[in-house]
Amino acid sequence: MRPCKVKPYADKNRPHLKFVVNYRRNGNRVRSFFQNKKEAQTFAQLKNNELLIGETAGAKQLAAFGKTIADAIEFYLPYLQASNRKCTFRELVDELMPAKEADGASVAYLTDLQCRLGQFSENFGNRIVSEIKAHEIDQWLRGLNVSPVSRNNSRRVLRTAFNFARTRNYCVENPVLATAKAKEIEGTVGILTVAETARLLEAADAELVPFIAIGAFAGLRRAELERLDWSEIDFESGLIEVKAKKAKTAQRRHVQIQPNLRQWLLPLRKHKGNVTPESGFRQSFEQARKAADITEWPDNALRHSFASYHLAHFKNAASTALELGHTDAGLVFQHYRQIVKPKDAERYWNLFPTAGASSKVVSISA
Q1: Tens of pLDDT along 94-152?
Q2: Where do the DSSP E strands lie in 210-300?
Q3: Nearest to 106 by CA among 243, 267, 280
Q4: What SS3 class is residue 128?
Q5: How far, rounded to the nearest angstrom, does the alpha carbon of residue 290 sit from its chain's CA centroid?
Q6: Least enclosed by CB within 10 Å: which of 38, 102, 229, 241?
Q7: If one looks up domain 89-178 in CATH, what number appears?
Q8: pLDDT tens per residue, range 257-290
Q9: What are 229's strand-pairing partners?
Q10: Which letter does DSSP use for residue 316 in this model?
Q11: Domain 194-363 is of which CATH architecture?
Q12: 184: exposed, middle or buried (C-beta count within 10 Å: 0-12, 13-18, 19+)?
């Protein structure tokens, strides 16, 4: 039988295919097409080796499993093709970022992606993607010296990058899937006490009060608050609209304006414009926090406080989940149940500004 050879190929309907290899399978003439010459040459060599091997020991070993040399080639060829598509990890990131942006990813997501992938690129940026192994990624993740949650977030981002690499045929398998996840020890979420919430509202400048009040009494995420416009707060219907493009979940939802929140917002309401101050926000917030004598600020303190006090007061996990934009009420029940006592929850939802006071004085029901 004549050896297989690589021949040029041209078809206006398939302009990306440049080479063809003719061979026989089970007595039938078969053609395989390739984008570059090196892949075609590799395939032709494998087919020629199959002809030379014939009924040798290797063929007999495969036959014991019901497989042929052709099956072995079909299995191994993708690995060779991926290894021939030379793409460094840094080049992969340069392709991934604009693709995610075109998919509509948020600025916060893109920033996190760029940061974590950039950190990985410091060690692996010049490495060929298909040559990066799971044990190397494992070792890098374990050497980050960060919390289990942060380590798993980096692992998640790398999994996304290598999944993207698979779609571009830069690797056959995603090595991140074989790496270990760090064990996350669940802790109690941090919240503000009723007194701390009252002091914070009292200490805050007027421009800052809507941000704090909506975070504490409507539970919007910080990113959602920063994107919220006054036109999306409907006092007539008693709802705050979180538009899909501004929500973390990319799903539109409405959050109820509780009576105390309404009283905090009404004197400061505007027809339109950002709810969050556009300049000097961080400095103003830090000043208010210090003035309120809150030495340690818990992670997502306003949102977690809302969820905890809402569940304790209204005793409806599904309703709390709906307000938060969660699809799983079980998660709300798991994380926020029994964090606060019902009497404290009642005081929390009775934090009202005192009308007519020369300075903000918070009324706290006993």
Answers
A1: 999 999 999 888 787 899 999 999 999 999 999 999 899 999 999 999 999 888 888 99
A2: 233-234, 239-242, 253-256
A3: 243
A4: strand
A5: 32
A6: 102
A7: 1.10.150.130
A8: 999 999 999 999 999 999 998 888 989 999 999 9
A9: 274
A10: -
A11: Orthogonal Bundle (1.10)
A12: exposed
